[in-house]
TrEMBL record:
One of its GO terms (biological process) is maturation of SSU-rRNA. The keyword Cytoplasm applies. GO terms for molecular function: ribosomal small subunit binding. The keyword Cytoplasm applies. One of several proteins that assist in the late maturation steps of the functional core of the 30S ribosomal subunit. Associates with free 30S ribosomal subunits (but not with 30S subunits that are part of 70S ribosomes or polysomes). Required for efficient processing of 16S rRNA. May interact with the 5'-terminal helix region of 16S rRNA. It comes from the Bacteria. It holds the Pfam family RBFA. This is Ribosome-binding factor A. It comes from Rubellimicrobium roseum. Monomer. Binds 30S ribosomal subunits, but not 50S ribosomal subunits or 70S ribosomes. It is found in: Cytoplasm. Belongs to the RbfA family. Keywords: Cytoplasm, Ribosome biogenesis.
Length: 135
C-alpha cells in the first residue's frame, strides 16, 4: 500500500533508519574511536536522528554533556563527518549511509523555557479552570 503524498509524518522506515543511526552514532561517540582531540573524553548525547524520505540525508541532534562548548563540538563533528560515516557504514547493514548533518539538540532548552513559562504566576492564573477560580 502506498503512502499518500499529503502525509506529513515520517514513515516507519525513516524512523527505523534514524533510530539505527542514532544508536550506532552514540556507540561510536561513547567508545571514543574518533581521532580528534576536541572530541576525546567528551560525553555527547545523540537525542534524535531525522532522516529524509529518500534516506539520503540524516540530521543528528547532539548535545555535549553539560551543554558546554556546543559550537566547538559541532565543528569537530562536522570536521570528522567522513570518518563517522565510514564507521557507521561498517556497523550497519544499509546499502547507502545517509549524508550526515549535525545540529545542536535544543529540546532541553525548550523544556526549561516551557517549565519557566508555566511557573509564571500570570500563566498559572490563566490556566486555572473556572471551577478552581474563586467566586
Amino acid at each position: 500500500m502506498s503512502r499518500s503524498p499529503s502525509h506529513s509524518g515520517p514513515s516507519q522506515r525513516m524512523l527505523r533508519v534514524g533510530e539505527l543511526i542514532r544508536r550506532t552514532l552514540s556507540e561510536i561517540l561513547q567508545q571514543g574511536d574518533l581521532h580528534d582531540p576536541e572530541l576525546s573524553g567528551v560525553s555527547i548525547t545523540v537525542g534524535e536522528v531525522r532522516v529524509t524520505p529518500d534516506l539520503k540525508r540524516a540530521t543528528a541532534y547532539v548535545l555535549p554533556l553539560g551543554g558546554g562548548n556546543r559550537e566547538g563540538i559541532l565543528a569537530a563533528l562536522r570536521r570528522n563527518k567522513p570518518e563517522i560515516r565510514h564507521m557507521i557504514a561498517r556497523e550497519m547493514t544499509l546499502k547507502h549511509v545517509p549524508d550526515l548533518k549535525f545540529e545542536i539538540d535544543e529540546t532541553f532548552d525548550r523544556i526549561d523555557a516551557t517549565r519557566r513559562m508555566f511557573s509564571d504566576e500570570r500563566v498559572r492564573r490563566d490556566l486555572e479552570s473556572p471551577e478552581d477560580a474563586p467566586e
